[in-house]
């Protein structure tokens, strides 16, 4: 591994660490720790598997927004029960299966939304965490784009 690759790996790890700390901090505000696992996986995919099938920023954004809105809609209109959780998981799974917005960790957030049972806090916290991940992902891209090229570090 050359110096440039080491630097990029170090930056990845720093951004991942910052992102996870922020995710846990935001999810602890209303004791919504259960939303942290899918978002931590998302941060890992975006940062360490950059450009992979499940780490596209647009897919992450759209799939999680779909989960937040479908969960809120079903919670508020139909209620919270194992049956409606199953319906929502199927709806979200179908969405990420038939669209170009493929991000499987979104399915986990669907399930956690039923465990949390707090519609308003779930939505607000989820959107805050999602924005942090997207902003940090773009910040990481910007930082890496402005690093010296590989040849100058080797």
Query: What's the total count of β strands?
Result: 0
Question: Could you tell me the strand content as a percent range?
Answer: under 5%
* Helix content range: over 70%
Cα-atom radius of gyration: 17 Å
> Strand-and-helix sequence, N→C?
HHHHHHH
What is the mean predicted local confidence, pLDDT? 87
Structural class: mainly alpha
Distance between the termini: 10 Å
Characterize the structure shown.
The chain is mainly alpha-helical. The protein has one domain. It is built from seven helices and no strands. It has helices at residues 3-28, 36-48, 57-77, 82-98, 105-116, 119-145, 150-153. The termini are close together.
Keywords for this entry:
78% helix; single chain; mainly alpha; 154 residues
Helix/strand layout:
Layout: H1 3-28, H2 36-48, H3 57-77, H4 82-98, H5 105-116, H6 119-145, H7 150-153
Helix pairs in contact: 1-2, 1-6, 2-5, 2-6, 3-4, 3-5, 3-6, 4-5
Quick overview of this protein structure:
The protein is 78% helix and 0% strand.
């Amino acid at each position: 591994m050359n110096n440039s690759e080491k630097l990029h790996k170090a930056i990845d790890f720093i951004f991942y660490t910052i992102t996870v700390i922020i995710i846990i901090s935001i999810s602890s505000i209303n004791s919504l720790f259960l939303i942290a696992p899918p978002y931590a996986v998302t941060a890992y995919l975006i940062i360490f598997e950059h450009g992979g099938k499940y780490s596209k920023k647009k897919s992450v954004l759209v799939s999680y927004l779909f989960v937040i809105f479908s969960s809120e809609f079903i919670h508020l209109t139909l209620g919270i029960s194992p049956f409606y959780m199953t319906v929502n998981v199927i709806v979200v799974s179908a969405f990420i299966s038939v669209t170009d917005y493929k991000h499987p960790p979104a399915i986990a957030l669907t399930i956690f939304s039923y465990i949390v049972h707090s519609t308003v806090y779930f939505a607000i916290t989820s959107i805050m965490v999602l924005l942090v991940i997207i902003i940090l992902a773009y910040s990481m891209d910007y930082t890496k784009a402005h690093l010296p090229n590989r040849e100058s570090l080797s």
